[in-house]
Write a structure and sequence with these properties.
Oligomer: single chain
Radius of gyration: 21 Å
CATH architecture of the largest domain: 3-Layer(aba) Sandwich
CATH topology of the largest domain: Rossmann fold
Distance between the termini: 27 Å
Largest sheet: 6 strands, parallel
Shape: elongated
Structural class: alpha/beta
Order of helices and strands: EHEHEEHEHEEEHEHHHHH
Number of domains: 2
């Protein structure tokens, strides 16, 4: 793959929150010619400008979109769709749009037939983030070694896909996976959405605020993600309900099996299932 020079490209980050600010920090390291940000919070934009995280912030999309070669939409699912649809006439000709939304079917299906022929939308999902919504901007270090998923469409131009692959590599991601939107949403229901529900449910069933005094690490590891972004995850759960409900049914079946074995004091069944699961997890790798 030919080396991509990003120094002559202008990029716009839409939404300068946890992920948007990490993208800005990473793009600064990569050396984009100009880094712009669009956000409704002017104080956030001014802070980002003063810290040299971005070159200039905007609150009106039409003021800056026509100048940008790459647009990274760091918004929730429906906000991301609304932004792209409403600004379709503002995007620069031959520009590339990508997103960070945690589901891909809804993005691709809702934009099909709406995108201009001279604008390339490449759906993406960086598997990185922070579990707490703290104040301040996020370091680009959250991307190091993590997975990045692309779900290219048959309309994407090869040179733009190569640009995204190069960019993802330069951002420090450890692995790039390319798949279709349906497979993405099915796997994410298991590896991400189910995990957040389990973590939240574990905290939900405890009435003891001091229970962490009795844990040796397992509870902390399993509930780290329970401090959830409720607006975003509720939206994603419902949007992926077909895949997620199937996954929850399978999980409930497994839990019910263990419950029955424990109730019946069936040591051999519990041991053999754990032995099987241990080998299965080893085969999954990292």
């Amino acid at each position: 793959m030919e080396e991509i020079d990003f120094k002559n490209k202008k990029v716009l980050i839409v939404g300068l929150g946890l992920m948007g600010s990490a993208y800005a920090a990473s793009f600064r390291n990569i050396g984009f010619e100009t880094i712009y940000a669009l956000d409704r919070n002017n104080e956030v934009l001014k802070k980002a400008e003063s810290e040299k995280l971005i070159d200039k912030g905007y609150q009106n999309a039409s003021d800056i979109l026509p100048s940008c070669d790459l647009v990274v939409v760091c918004l929730y699912l429906h906000d991301a769709l609304d932004f792209i649809k409403k600004n379709m006439n503002n995007f620069k000709s031959n520009s590339v749009i990508t997103d960070i939304v945690g589901l891909k079917r809804k993005m691709v299906e809702n934009l099909d037939g709406i995108l201009r022929d001279d604008v390339d939308f490449i759906p993406g999902h960086p598997m990185a983030g922070r579990e707490k919504n703290k104040e301040g901007f996020t370091s680009a270090k959250i991307f190091e070694g993590k997975n990045y998923i692309l779900t290219p469409t048959d309309k994407n131009k090869p040179e733009n896909l190569d640009m995204m692959r190069s960019l993802i590599s330069k951002m420090g991601f450890g692995r790039l996976i390319e798949t279709d939107p349906d497979t993405h949403d099915e796997k994410i229901a298991f590896t991400s959405q189910l995990c957040h529900i389990i973590a939240a449910s574990m905290v939900d069933i405890s009435e003891d605020s001091k229970v962490t005094q009795f844990e040796g690490g397992s509870f902390q590891d399993m509930t780290r993600i329970a401090m959830i972004n409720s607006d975003m995850w509720a939206e994603l759960f419902i949007a992926n309900k077909d895949k997620l409900v199937d996954t929850l049914d399978e999980f409930t079946e497994s839990i019910s099996y263990f419950r029955k074995c424990i109730e019946d004091e069936n040591f051999d069944h519990i041991k053999s299932r754990f032995d099987f699961i241990g080998k299965k997890r080893e085969e999954m790798g990292k």
